[in-house]
Every structure is written in C-alpha cells, then in structure tokens.
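PROTEIN DATA CARD
Card holder: dTDP-4-amino-4,6-dideoxygalactose transaminase
Chain length: 367
Origin: Terracoccus luteus
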Amino acid sequence: MTIPLVDLVSQMREIADDLAPDLERVLSTAAFIGGPDVARFEEEYAQFVGVEHCVSLANGTDAVELALRAVDVAAGEVIVPANTFIATAEAVVRAGGTPVLVDVDDDTFLIDPERVAAAVGPRTRAVVPVHLYGQLAPVEQVVEALDGTTVAVVEDGAQSQGASRAGRASGAWGAVGATSFYPGKNLGAAGDAGAVTTDDPDLARTVRLLGAHGSERKYDHEILGFNSRLDTVQAVVLRHKLRRLAQWNKARRRAAERYLDLLADVERVRLPVVASGNEHVWHLFVVRVDDRDAVLARLHETGVGAGVHYPVPVHLTGAFASLGHTRGDFPVAEAMASSVLSLPIHPHLDDADQDRVVQALRDAVAR
Ligand SMILES: *Cc1c(COP(=O)(O)O)cnc(C)c1O
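Structure generated from the sequence above:
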C-alpha cells in the first residue's frame, strides 16, 4: 500500500540513533532476560500511568490472562464487550472463566454500563472494559454498576497507552490494568510484549509470580505459574519509544482532528465520537460506511491501506461457537462488524498523504 495503515519503519528510524548503543550493549553482553533495563522500563511505565506497580510480561494476551488469574476468576463469569479483539475473550477462557458478552454503545463503540449491570449475576467475578481504538471505556460508570458487589474491574488497555479519562490514565482505573506492546500498538516493541499495572502490591506480586514459574527465588516455586517474561531487548526498545509516546500521541490527535474536519461534510461517512471527559489517543481512526467491503476494495485499489477492526464479532467466531450465541444477539457489535473502516493513522502521517486518503474515501463512497 502506498499509504499504510501504520508506519513502524518511521518510528524505528526516529529512535535508531538512540537505540543503537543500548541494543549493542545488550547483544554484546548477552544479558537477554531480566536485568536493569527491564526493571527501569517497569518503573518508567508505572510512572507514566500513575500507578505504584508495573509487571512486564511476554505479550498482551498473557497480561489480560494473568490479571484475571490474579483477581481469581476461575469457574466464574467475566463480562466482556462483544466487539473487541479476540484476545480479550481468549484470556478469560485461559484464566478458567466463562466470557459473558455484552453489547456496546452505538456511538462510542465502548462497553455499555447499563448492559454490564444487567449481566452481573452470582457467578460474575470480573468485568473487562476494553478501551477500544484509543479511548477509555466509561470505567467509573462500570464501577458504579458494580457497587455493593465484589466483582473486580480488569482494564484491557492494549489500544490506549497514554489515553486518559477525567485526567486518570488507562491502566490506573481497575484493580488491574492489562496492556499490550505488540508492534502496532501506540507503544509497540520490536516483537511481542505486554504488562499489567496496579496500585495493589499483592496483585502485582501474584502477577509477577504467575509470569515467572510461580517463583520469586530460583527453584522456590510457591504456586503453579507460567513463563511470560519481557525480553531485555524489548525493554530497551520500549524505553526509547516511551520517551516519545506523548509526542507521538499528540501527532495522532492532530491527524484525527484533521480527519474529523476534512470529512465533516461527507454524509455517507459516519465519524468516530470522543466520549465526554476522554483524552483519545487514536490507536485507530474508525469510521462507519454502508457497503463497507466495496468501499474498502476501492481504497485498496487506490493504494490506501485501510483496514477493518474487526470483521467478525466475538460471538460469531468459530472459537466462541460454544457460547451458543446466534446472529442478532448483539446488534450493535454486528452492525459495527459490517460497517467499520479504519483509515491510516500514525504519528508520521503527513498532511499530503492524509489529503489523499480523504479524497480516495470521498470518491469511494460517492460511487
Ligand atoms: C492487541 C490486543 C490484545 C492482545 O495483545 P497481544 O500482545 O497481541 O497478545 C488484547 N486486547 C486488545 C483489545 C488488543 O487490541
């Protein structure tokens, strides 16, 4: 694609000079697991989020799973939005729970607190609000809906590093926040990576044990754990990118505001809505159009790397057929799946390319 959906090459180019000596140090000393770079990254990311603890892990799916294990959802139910990346629901099953899907708000695409309240039952152990596309779900309303229960809130902040709501960051709202540093996320590693954030020292310790074979000291395995470590190489890359994240998110915000402005008069394009109180970091810029697949094909023909997040809602995937849902169960998520279209957005998108995307979209929906 001439205009890609994301541009990781420009990110790497921007950090290349700073990164080279650190990378060389890690490679030449062969210190690949743990060490001061990992510890530093954890401190810096905790500070960035505004929490006491960050535990780095191998990827974001592990982060959601281990966060859910730490609050203990085994044999219980976990409420999850019907339109999210499949990993959110996978993590619930891997943690021993059953996903209970709820539909989302038609304007913001975020979990609907009233539907959460209606879905809470005696077996509910946790709710996972997903901060989809770069803005926070209405977490305080979810917390309110859970008032008087022991149900834990575990944030899925994989798409929202640096986003905030009422001044409080993604990852600082729930009992635990899980996030992913998959390369294409707002803060992305040079491979797989993830983390959880929390103010609770016990939950932080449990996640750390779970990710390190259940052990704090070598060969002392207190609980049954897993191997989910952040590589030192990834910590080094993440530290250099974290320093630039606020500025990169600002560039995304500028691009998003430009799209909103340039597309405001296009009737056939439904623009994304920022929920009140939110500082959006535009992981994705998602519009809705009729006849989406035809529009997408026309954009691809003209070299515009638009995408679809996501073409199939969780309940209609083969993986979750066992939940027993049918088409019609989550009308908003289903309508989204057939109409959403992600336009190229990233910190290095220049105005000329963006103008071309806008023109291509105008042409594509006019046909
Ligand atoms: C990317 C993502 C994940 C999973 O992260 P990985 O690092 O790819 O395992 C989980 N939830 C959401 C919403 C995501 O976008």
